[in-house]
Write a structure and sequence with these properties.
By secondary structure, the protein is of the alpha/beta class. It has helices at 43-54, 56-61, 74-84, 97-102, 153-166, and strands at 12-14, 20-22, 31-36, 64-69, 90-92, 107-109, 123-125, 128-132, 138-143.
Length: 178
């Protein structure tokens, strides 16, 4: 389990149009929002990433970088990028499932074709949304066991505003006895 205020796993992946993404050297004033998505087969992911794409500039205004990541290969990642109009949203691909597990993501097995007629991969990671500080410490994290009921990006932008104004620390860091 990832612990707030502690270092996250390293993460280095290829992106479609922005070179290699390396979390440990990703330059931003306040950190990076990482959105792990299920893949091209997921219609909920397409809607979700479309909203993320619309807010990339809002995150950037607050000094926060953004990236969307899946275990899809380059071809499927490109199809998703085209589908959502990912002009400024970085899209990374080829997430190893072992790395997904390091981030606490759930792994699912294929159920064949989805409602939009696209075959699910044999194995794929379920969604997760994280904000990581420039020091690569976990600030915020949310993981899902299925594609529904995800955190809203506009709420995250507003939360970042509050955190900046109030110097609000990451919460959930206690690991002692309960």
């Amino acid at each position: 389990m990832l612990i707030p205020r502690q270092k996250t796993p390293d993460l280095t992946l290829p992106t479609l149009d922005h070179g290699e993404f390396n979390l440990s050297s990703d330059i931003s004033e306040r950190g990076t929002v990482i959105c792990f998505y299920r893949g091209l087969h997921c219609p909920v992911c397409a809607t979700y990433l479309t909203e993320f794409q619309k807010l990339v500039a809002d995150f950037a205004e607050r000094g926060v970088a953004t990236i969307a990541i899946s275990s899809d290969g380059e071809e499927r990642a490109r199809a998703m990028a085209d589908k959502i109009g990912a002009g400024t949203l970085r899209i990374a691909y080829d997430l190893p499932l072992a790395t997904a597990r390091e981030w606490g993501l759930y792994i699912s097995t294929s159920r064949g074709k989805t409602s939009i007629g696209i075959e699910e991969p044999a194995l794929f990671a379920e969604p997760g949304l994280f904000m990581v500080t420039p020091e690569q410490n976990l600030y915020y994290g949310s993981v899902q066991t299925m594609p529904f009921v995800r955190p809203h990006f506009t709420e995250l932008v507003n939360a970042i505003d509050f955190a900046i104004k109030s110097n609000y620390p990451a919460r959930g860091e206690y690991t002692g006895e309960a």
